[in-house]
Structure formats: C-alpha cells, structure tokens
Amino acid sequence: MRFGGAENYSERLERTVLSPLARTSNRYYYFLFFLAAVVLWGLYAFIVQLSYGLEVTGMRDIVIWGLYLVNFVFFIGISHAGTLISAILRVTHAQWRTSVTRMAELITVVAISVGALMPIIDLGRPDRVWHIIVYGRFQSPLMWDIVSITSYLTGSLIYLYLPLIPDFALMRDRLGQEASSLKRKLYTFLAVGWRNTPQQRHRLEKAIGIMAVLIIPIAVSVHTVVSFVFSMLLRPGWDSTIFGIYFVIGAIFSGIASIIIVMAIFRKFFHLEEYITERHFRNLGYLLIVSLALYLYLTVSEYLTVGYKLEVEEKHLLEILMFGKNALWFWSFVVGGMVMPAFLIVFRKLPTVPRLVTASVLVNIGMWIKRFVIVIPTLEVPLMPFEFGAYHPSWVEWSITAGAFAAFILIFAILAKVIPLISIWEVAEETGAAQPLPEPSAESRGVVRRAL
Amino acid sequence: MQRKDKRLTRRQFIKGFTGTLGLLAAAAYPVSGLLKPARAAEGHTGETASDARNRAWCMVIDLKRCDGCIGLGTPPQCTQACINGHYVPKGQEWIQVYEADLPGGGTYFMPTPCYQCENPPCVNVCPVAATYRDRDGVVLIDHRRCIGCRMCMGACPYHRRFFNWGQPELPPEAALAEYSPLYPVPAVRGTVIKCMFCAHLLRDGKLPMCVQGCPRKVLYMGDLNEDVASNGVEVVKLSMFLDTHNAYRYKEDLGTQPRIFYLPGHGQAFGRKPNDPRPLQPPVWGWGGDGYDNRPGPWPWGEEAR
Q1: Do the chains contact at B148 and A124, CB–CB below 8 Å?
Q2: Residues of B whose CB is below 8 A from A135
Q3: pLDDT at B204 over 70
Q4: Higher pLDDT residue, B272 or B159?
Q5: Where are the alpha helices (DSSP H) in A53-140?
C-alpha cells in the first residue's frame, strides 16, 4: 500500500489507529480460540459447582471465603485503572493523557463486568440472586457493594462511550462500499447522528466534563465499600478503620500497573509507537511509584499498629501471616510486589518500557497475592478454642479463576477490534495538528477505505 | 479554536456540583423507606398465637458441672441430642463442647450453642433479611430466602454458624419433617444453618433438646422477662442465680449482648487436671454417610466418591 507524501498527521493517525480494526491476522484468531477454550473450561467447572454445590470448593465452615472473593477484590481493583485515573487526569488537564484514556476506560468496563460475577459464583444459591432485588436491605455492606458497583459500571460505560461518539462517527464516514451492512448499521447507530457541529461539540465536552467529575467519587466509593464487606466484620485483620483508603490506594496501584501492561501490549501489536511514547510510560511510572509509596505507608501502618499491641487474635493472625503457613504468600507480596518493582522504577539502568512493564507485571501478581493474604489468613484464625483453619483451593476454584482471567482478556481482545483504542479526535486536538477533524481529502478517504 | 468553552468555569462547576448534590439527595430519599427491619419471614414463621406473652429466652450454662461427658465415656450428650433431634448434617455441631485452657493449667469444658445476641452482628449484615430475631429474641434463619453469601458467618464472632456446602445427607425420616425457620429440617443445600434454641419446642412450653439431653443438668433454659430458669429438675430465680454465681458472658466486650450466661467455678473442682487421659469424644451421626450426597472426586476426571 502506498501513501502519497501529502499525508498529514491526522490522516496518519486515523490510518494507524483504524487499521487493526480492518485487518486481522490468523494468529489473533488462534489466540481468541485459546482464550475461548479456557473460558469454556471455567464454565464447565462452574457447572460442576452448580450441580454439586459449593462442597466442590476448598471452602469450609472455618475458612468460608476463598479464591472467588480474592478475584473479586482483584478485578474491582484493576477496574480503578481506568475511569478514576483517566478522570483525574482529565480534571487536572494533563494533556498527555489523551492517547491512554481509552484503554484505561476499557480496562475499567471489562474488569468490573468480570469482577462483579465473582460474588455471584461464590453464592451458595446463585438461583436466588433475585432475592437481593426483592428483599434487599441497605443495612448490609453487601447491598452497598451492589449499589456502588452497578453505578460504577453504568458510569464507566457512559464515560467510555461519550468520547467514543466522534470516533464512531469517523468510522461511519470512512466505511468503504465493501463493508458489511451490519458494520455500517452498528457504527451509524453508535455515532448517534454526530455531525461535528460546534453545538454538538460543546454539549459533548460539557457532558464529558460532568462525567469526569461525577465518576471520581463513585470510583472511590466502590473500593471503599468493597473494603467494608470485610471491615464491618468482627475479625482480626479486618477490624480496621483504614481499610477504605487502603483498598482505594491498592486499587489505584494495581490499576496503574494494568494500564502500563495493556499499553505496552497494544503499542507493540497495533504499532502505536508514535502515540504511546516513552513519555507516557515514564509519566505512568511516576504515578506507579507514588501509589506504591502510599500503599507501602498504609501497609506499614496497618501491621505496625496491631503488631505493637498484639491483641490475642491479632497476634495469631500476624504469626500465621509473617512466620507461619502464609509467610510465603505474605513475603512474596512484600518482596515481589513492592520492593522489586520499587527498585525497577527508581533505578533506570534498563530501557524504560521493558523495565516498567516488568515492574507492572510484578505489581499485579503481588496485588493478587495481597488480596489472598487479606482474605484467607484472617479466616483461618480461630474465634473459639479450636485449631487454626486451613484452605486449599480445589481444581474447580482454580479453573473458574483461570476462566475469569481468560474472559477478561477475551472481552478486551474482541473490543479492541471493534472500537479504536486511541481517542482519535482527542489526540488530534491535543497535538493541534488538525483542529476539529477536517473533511478528509479524496485521496486519504480512498486510503482509509481500502484499509477498512 | 476557542479554548474557553472547553473548560468549566468556577461558576459552572459550583452550579453543577450543588445541582448534583441536590439530585443525589432527592434520589437518596426513597432509600430511607428501604431500611427495613430484619424481619424476613413475617407471616410464615410458624408463629402461633397460643402463647401471646413475649419471652426473652436465654440459656445459663453451669461450667463447674460440665465434664464434656468424659465421665460417661460418651460424646457430649447435648450435642448428640441436638444432632439426633434436628438431623444435623454431618460435620456440624450446633451446640459444640470445646475444651478450653484454664490460666492455672488444666482445662474446662465449654458448651457453645448459638449465643442469640441481642445485638447480633449476623442479622445486621444479611443482605436479604433471611436471618432475623423473632419476637422472643431468638435469631432465626429463613432457609427459603437465604442466598448463601455467608456474610453472617463472617460476622459471627463466635463461629456458631454453619453452611450446607453440599446436599446434606440425611436419614429418610428427615424428609417427613415440616420445614419452618423454628425447626429447619431438612437442611437446605447452599444455605446457612445454626442452633435456633429449639424455638419450636419453646413455643410449646418444652425445654430444648440439649437441655433435656444433658445428663448432669448443666444447661438451664431461662426467660429474662419472667426472671426464671430451669434445667428440667430445679427451677431458679434467674437474676439471683446469675448474681450469686458470678455469671459472665463470652466476649462481653464485643458488645454483642449474648443471651448465653456462663457460671464459672467458685474454687470447686471443675474441668479436669492436665494428667487426666480421658478424651473428649466426638459426636456420632447415626445415619452414617460422609455428610453430603453426590460428592465429586478431587479431580475433574475423578469419579464420584459415593
């Protein structure tokens, strides 16, 4: 394919961002099949669980919650990647954000959708989920969760969709003759009659501004309330006043790490090097180290305050956590999830991108382990004069966990082929190369048409 | 292009912000109507109008007389009576006898039914009001409503709630029982279950099964309103009985206000010495089996263990 020398910035931007939507390699389909197979395996495990009941899991009367709740907290955590971070950057007018926000917001929507399934899978009677709507009462922290997570999902969907409208309109206009009518109808519908008039533009920006401000308190409330599911209970390690902010910071921490990973993957496979530069990685690296420092501070406060007093149940908890059977989990979180990433971010010997991606992968693994360390050891501490509980996840739980992660990647991979991963109009606006998207020249229209 | 219309001005922001707050407040208003008291099964609890008097059921446990039935060489008879009477699924002990350490060496035996707290953490956290306190102060569970989220089990500081992880394996006669939250037989898979003070017997003026089953008459059933308690042999004036025997409540400092009172010793020999070899026997489930029907193997390709 040849492009004339007359190709300007915005045309190149359109072409780069839209080309993955038009062309798909076989490797991509193999990857999708692989993911779909894992999801189906998880689904099979869930069917086994439905037919036998929760006895197929490793949970029992003493350790009543297991991997499902760990995954729940983890996914809701990485969902903070998106909306919160992109909204904060938008509200503070950080201009470099434009090429990152779309991916961040996508992470949010997909992660909440997968994460919200986890407590339902964890129910003893998933057939009675509707009781929550019919008999729900607001005294229960679980009800707060349901309310705030559903509003977060709704808010994030709106917040993802609004900046997409001009891009959908662009795709509608660029579709060639050979594009299927389904595709044409889809994009026409999603573009809701966007004509890029000054009035539409004004309204859109106002709406985005309002959503950006609204979504921040909702996002903060979501993870606070997730922590309340634990901290409202009379248990050692959970009975803590800093749990709300501890969870929120932890969520932002793992969220930023997720953005860095996703950015690196799509930069490589979608050839977005021009728009996602080292500068983006460096800036997110700064955010990552700040949230790491905050999380470290809160972790120290949390364990020092109970460790100094050593109230009996807390003492049991700290013993199994730091020296006992959970020590491996705990210290691999401390070393692998905090110390090593901190060194990787601070010392810049290695090249930026692989260095930060390694740090982010470590952070995400570490934060999953941290959620395990929050949920499980507390439940193992005896409340009555009996021995410590034990928890060994069964194959069903591991399979459903693998299925959930595969579902997350699968949905993300499919969406990446349907919507442009970079907000074309916002990037164009930020660079100032092309004020409101110009009518494409006949030549470039032909080029993009061929691409689509 | 104009930069101005992109940014929110301060005035716009304040306008938008107060407007949003107002909207949220208006939206939150109907929520107050949803703060319903935790009374699930009104109308189908099996409440009878025969005994109109309000009770405040409580239990007094005289620790200095309890030897965990090691003297008889049997499992604790309170637990056993409860299991036999309620067809308790295997592995659950609604009233369980723990052997706890004494500060001066030696141990004592501590029967632990549900504590029937006046400020029950479990009732507070239930998202569907499946667990509730009935008019006599007994914490009950409606197993037709429970969704199995296990928040109540996490909230209970006494670990007195159990979960039916699979389809409970019960003797055939259990199927004949008529279910009610007062007498949760047969147990329902995927729901939380616990001691309910034999509320069905109390309403008929009978003592709970554990109180009837105790060979040493350690357990007293009492009514705080009527200020009386009985272990089936003697009847005592409850307030004076608790007072003269230095009664205490377990984990009193949590503020759960349990309705189980323990009577510690007065220098009498209670519990047992460290060199006593007799073991505390585990209870037996007469109908055998391993607790749940249809147990799967430990691996996906494994066959059913049954």
Answers
A1: yes
A2: 40, 128-130, 145
A3: yes
A4: B159
A5: 67-91, 98-122, 131-135
Q: Which tokens sit at A343?
A: 């060194």
- Point out the residue among B162, B190, B294 whose CB comes nearest to the CB of A61: B162
Q: Mean pLDDT of all residues in chain B? A: 85
Q: Is the pLDDT of residue B98 over 60?
A: yes
Average pLDDT value over all residues in chain A: 89
A297-303 long-range Cβ contacts below 8 angstroms, 24+ apart = A298/A242, A298/A245, A298/A246, A298/A249, A299/A246, A299/A338, A301/A242, A302/A240, A302/A242, A302/A246
SS (H, E, C) A353-395: HHHHHHHHHHHHHHHHHHHHHHHHHHHHCCCCCCCCCCCCCCH
**Partner residue opposite A385 with nearest CB, options B99, B125, B128:** B99
Which of A38, A50, A61, A312 is most worth mutating to test chain B (most B CB atoms within 10 A of its CB)? A61
Is B128–A65 a contact, with Cβ atoms under 8 angstroms apart? no
CB contact (8 A) between residue B112 and residue A384: yes
Closest-approach residue (CA) in chain B for A63: B154
A123·B13 Cβ contact <8 A: no
Architecture of the domain delimited by A10-438 = Up-down Bundle (1.20)
Nearest CA in chain B to A125: B147
pLDDT for A125 beyond 50: yes
Residue of A nearest to B291 (CA): A55
| B198 vs B4 pLDDT, higher one | B198
* Contact predicate A137/B129, CB 8 Å: yes
Euclidean distance between CA atoms A11 and A447, whole angstroms: 9
A393 cis-preceded (ω within 30 degrees of 0)? no
User: What are the tens digits of pLDDT across the range B41-79?
Assistant: 444 444 444 456 789 999 999 998 898 999 899 999 999
Percent of chain B with pLDDT over 90: 58
Which pLDDT band, with edges at 50, 70 and 90, does B27 fall under? low
**Among A92, A131, A391, the residue to mutate for chain B (most B Cβ within 10 A):** A131
Residue A171 has pLDDT above 70, yes or no: yes
- Give the closest residue to A420 by CA, choosing from A451, A450, A446: A451
Which residues neighbour A411 within 8 Å (Cβ) at sequence distance 6 or greater?
A: A110, A113, A114
Q: What is the pLDDT of residue B267?
A: 60
Q: What is the ipTM of this complex?
A: 0.86
Chain B residues with CB under 8 Å of A230 CB are 154
CA distances from B233 to A323, A368, B61, B229 (A): 51, 58, 14, 10
Is the pLDDT confidence value at A33 over 80? yes
Ordered domains of chain B (ranges, CATH)? 57-263 (3.30.70.20)
**What is the H or E stretch that residue B199 is in?**
helix B199-203
What value does the mean pLDDT take over residues A145-154? 94
- A52 with B295: Cβ contact below 8 A: yes
- A140–B130 CB contact, under 8 Å: no
Coil, strand, or helix at residue B230? strand
Q: Could you identify the residue written with the tokens 């019960």?
A: B170
Is a pLDDT exceeding 50 seen at residue B306? no
Q: Residue B157 and residue A383: Cβ atoms within 8 Å?
A: yes
Q: Do the chains contact at B296 and A48, CB–CB below 8 Å? A: yes
What's the pLDDT at A331?
96
Within 10 A of A123 (CB to CB), how many other CB atoms are there?
20
In angstroms, rounded to a whole number, what is the distance separating the alpha carbons of residues A77 and A73? 6
Kindly determine whether residue B98 and residue A122, on different chains, have CB atoms separated by under 8 Å: no
Q: Choose from A49, A51, A140, A392 for mutation: most chain B CBs within 10 A.
A: A140
What are the sequence ranges of the domains in chain A?
10-438
Q: How many other CB atoms are there within 10 angstroms of residue B232's CB atom?
A: 15
Rounded CA-CA distance A86/A80 in Å is: 9
Mean pLDDT of B119-137: 94
Residue of A nearest to B292 (CA): A55
